[in-house]
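tool_log.txt
---
The assistant was asked to compare two proteins side by side. It first ran the structure predictor on the initial sequence, then on the second. Raw inputs and outputs are pasted verbatim so the downstream comparison step can read them without reformatting.
(1)
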Amino acid sequence: MESQPLPLDGITVVAVEQAVAAPFATRQLADLGARVIKVERIDGGDFARGYDSAAGGMASHFVWCNRGKESIALDLKDSRGVDVVRQLIAGADVFVQNLAHGAAARLGLDAATLCAAHPRLVAVDISGYGPSGPYAGKRAYDMLVQCEAGLVSVTGTPGQPVKAGIPAADIAAAMYAFSGVLAALVRRGASGRGGPVEVSMLDALAEWMGHPLHHAMHGGTSPARTGLAHAVIAPYDAYPTADGGKVLLSVQNDREWRRLAEQVIRRPELGTDPDFATNSARVANRKRTDALVGEALGGLDADEAVELLERAGVACARLRDVQQLAEHPQLAARERWREVGSPVGPLRALLPPITLPGGGEARMGDVPALGEHTEALLRAVGMAGVEIAALRRDGVVA
């Protein structure tokens, strides 16, 4: 059977982007075959390049979000730099930007303006809080939006709220921008017209807060912060093992509790004891429930505990750190790791989660150096060598 091409082969994306939200969205498009042209500042580029140097001298955020792109460095404070962007957009299918509030509109690069000039263009505005309302101009970084969206209030221990350990607001906005582009391209295929796409970090993360939000709106109280435990299910927590590890388990219904009581705790009578027989009872007696489970698992090492729980048909997991994730046996068995090129040499990277059996493998291109493709892209829009030299001399391109 002939392999199908990647679904976004032939699609060109221009992105004036920085940090995580827009770059992560456009990386998804690049992985699916799109050509992504990344417009960066001439003075250091996307500021995520400077977050750290953990990836062989490059920033881990930048490596994660920017493989498979072409980098052009332009000064958008100079009208000639903006004109280059407009020329690139004229030949593009998609434009994405996440500049500060009002900046794209001042440059004439907002979605509404661009779509009026290019009816087939899909143009995405990613913002912190949306284009209007009292928060429209407010600075929006990931942790700040996590706080505004209430995520921090339901994450952590009873005594200490904490932010998520990943940039959840950025990722949420990125994935809605990604799916918004795909939806708009499908619509364009039917109607011939693209159109604007708006995504805000607050809207995206508020949607992800659906369970605690509905619990609070309709139940009158916010879910409690419970660390690794579940606010409304017990037992559902991490339990120490004899080798210093931790094993999580989750009992989703009373049948599973009876199996846990009989085969793991070795006290089958707990399956019908009114203090434990129902989830509501176990939540009300959470400390006693957790003590029973903890005692049963505390004398085993983590591997033994997992094996025992799996034999009993109880959902469980190891509490792994990030280094252990990098060596996860399931990822290795499914051959999910690849290498991508970069200015500092090959770097290990995961295949994207979307797999298209029968089609080509995701296009995991190189991580670009700042301005690596500037000259080629300028020539592609028709500029002669003398024009390019003048722009370089004047500091408009790098």
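(2)
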Amino acid sequence: MSDTHNSQNAHGDHGFETVAIHAGNTADPLTGAVVPPIYQVSTYKQDGVGGLRGGYEYSRSANPTRTALEENLAALEGGRRGLAFASGLAAEDCLLRTLLSPGDHVVIPNDAYGGTFRLFAKVVSRWGVEWSVADTSDPASVRAALTPKTKVIWVETPSNPLLGITDIAAVAQVARDAGARLVVDNTFASPYLQQPLALGADVVVHSLTKYMGGHSDVVGGALIVADPALGDELAYHQNAMGAVAGPMDAWLVLRGIKTLPVRMDRHSENATKVADMLSRHARVTRVLYPGLPEHPGHEIAAKQMKAFGGMVSFQVEGGEEAAVAVCDRAKLFTLGESLGGVESLIEHPGRMTHASVAGSALEVPADLVRLSVGIESADDLLADLQQALG
């Protein structure tokens, strides 16, 4: 890839909103189209044997629409290389098989997306990779979980679904001291609210399905790295394994990213109002949102995030059945998995997104409800939650 993947070279003088719209989005040289075309093509006419036109030969290896997205992603995260995948888990799988060998060890968080846990516990472990759990909000806990074979420390911040906060810079120092790489899943925050590479992370992971796409109409994943050599290794494995983003999916994510800043501002504003209301509701026993001053990670979140995001979790009196009933009674909040779209969603993690962690150290409370707060009228969202709580 060209050095356009370096946001500091190409876009260092521009604000985030400008970069989101322009990075990778150069006008089409043939027609002048201001939006990159969807190159719905599998192969390319070559200029003689071994003579690639513009570096393209086959769309698993590279596709111009995907290249535009990858350049945009690298610029937004301040990275040297971005890679777009068919899903977030495809990105994670490629990363783990690039970084790890049988016998290596990984530290994973005690609060993480159920699919990520399943990848470690049911897939990668069969390959001979060991893992242990740590409370990543406590750097001492991470350090205590290290072994001489630790190659990767994995972090989600904010975490899914308990909205825990990890001090990225502090854990990055733990990783450097151990000779391990720090991977940060930045899906909940997005690069608009938080840029882990600038805080010392080695790799950023995204489910592009969520806030980056933003409209619940595409599935995708991404890796962004600070080290060009690691980027080359990942690109090799991505091509060898093949789980790449298709051109239509890449185009949809590019379109979504253009409005990421304005959407995240509204998500955060609405979520703050929702969290404030829930914290005063008689039937709510606990609200998990890093924007609340009483949240244990509030000060760190305020330091490393621009705002606190659109995800809110809360626990209700009456246990699991009461939590499920709240989900069932919601009307404007759609009962569904995933998150990060313009529309608000509600779910019961224990029975839905995090069913795979039942019985493990990552098991979530049975009375927990998770909200993806959309960009609708805040008053309408508050009214819906109030009637759902009864």
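---
observation on (2): The chain has a mean pLDDT of 94. The longest strand covers residues 150-156.
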